[in-house]
């Protein structure tokens, strides 16, 4: 029901409305409050939730770690392309691995920067320009969402990367979304 309909509804009500002490909604809310929740912790249902322990993916995370670990010694890690069926834990394993890696790098003052970008988010990554602009913003450059030539935004990003001696790992999650739209030239 939109605002107009609500206004019409309210306007048509008699000026004297009898309010019963308890209606069905009062009863519903009271009963709801008395019941135990079905959930012990609803936080685990949120998209951004990352569990401390991930079951049944240790081997895969060790493979990821082995490929990315050279970055901890400021060496260039190999490029990595992870694919598989939906819901098998690719994003979860990658996020867990880079979170642990980043924590270690910070604790030891290792010049490592990990940038995670989900290409499925339209506002951030539905075009090549927006991906590069978001990457530039992640490293501290102010780049408008539109308006500059893509190669200029790319140069701004690269200049910022070259300004500081550090190893950068860029994770482009759901990259197939942008490849489908723009082709594989972005890779």
Structure description:
The protein is mainly alpha-helical. It has helices at residues 3-12, 24-34, 58-68, 90-107, 122-125, 128-138, 150-162, 176-182; strands at residues 112-118, 167-173. The protein has a two-stranded parallel ribbon.
Instruction: Please indicate the percent range of residues in DSSP E strands (runs of 2 or more).
Output: 5-15%
CATH class of the domain at 57-186: Alpha Beta
For the largest sheet, list the strands in their spatial order.
Answer: 1-2
Helix content: 40-55%
Quickly give the structural class.
Answer: mainly alpha
Blueprint (SSEs and pairs):
Elements: H1 3-12, H2 24-34, H3 58-68, H4 90-107, E1 112-118, H5 122-125, H6 128-138, H7 150-162, E2 167-173, H8 176-182
Parallel strand pairs: 1-2
